[in-house]
Design brief:
duf1285 protein fold; duf1285 like fold; 10% helix; eight-stranded mixed beta sheet; mainly beta; 2 domains; 179 residues; 17 strands; six-stranded mixed beta sheet
């Protein structure tokens, strides 16, 4: 059954004009590698092209062009943060992340950091929003670098460990849970 939709200004799909092609057979692995029918896509310009039309809607990932859209599988996050550059200190600090596709984003109001907990292992899973609805998982080494920049702050009466970037505080963990 063919469905039709279009994207809104925020990249979400809405009923309308674009043909749905079902599953495209593309998968993004946890490490950020893109696969087509289980074969790695080794051409970075092609991966960047696909990433430029990637959208997230209702828990599903889609490649959306002006004439068609197709669902893809994403094992964790569609991008991986592979590098962190920090400038300034404390509230004046700016944290810039580089992704595996060479996008650069500065953590702040439009690019928040968050730390989820892996339900199986209990380990932290840190992310940064790269584009609306599309996050990058921070490599472990990048997360360690981020933790080195952190300090304690009291948020809503609770001691939190986190970092400042672009004038916004991002909690990395609750200090009372660590004891």
């Amino acid at each position: 059954m063919e469905t039709r939709s279009q994207t809104s200004a925020d990249g979400a799909l809405a009923p309308g004009m674009i043909d749905s092609c079902g599953d495209f057979g593309i998968r993004i692995a946890r490490d950020g590698t893109w696969f087509y029918h289980d074969s790695p896509i080794r051409r970075l310009p092609l991966v960047k092209l696909f990433a430029s039309v990637l959208r997230h809607e209702n828990g599903e990932y889609w490649l959306v062009t002006p004439v068609e859209r197709g669902r893809i599988e994403v094992e964790d996050a569609p991008f991986v943060a592979v590098e962190l550059e920090a400038s300034g200190q404390d509230k004046d600090q700016s944290l810039t992340f580089r992704t595996n596709l060479d996008d650069r984003v500065v953590a702040g109001e439009n690019h928040p950091l968050r730390v989820a907990t892996d339900p199986t292992t209990g380990e932290p899973r840190p992310y940064i929003m790269v584009k609306p609805g599309l996050e990058a998982l921070l490599l472990r080494s990048v997360f360690y670098h981020l933790i080195e920049r952190g300090h304690e702050a009291t948020i809503d009466g609770e001691p939190q460990f986190g970092v400042w970037s672009s004038g916004k505080f991002f909690p990395l963990g609750n200090l009372t849970d660590a004891t």
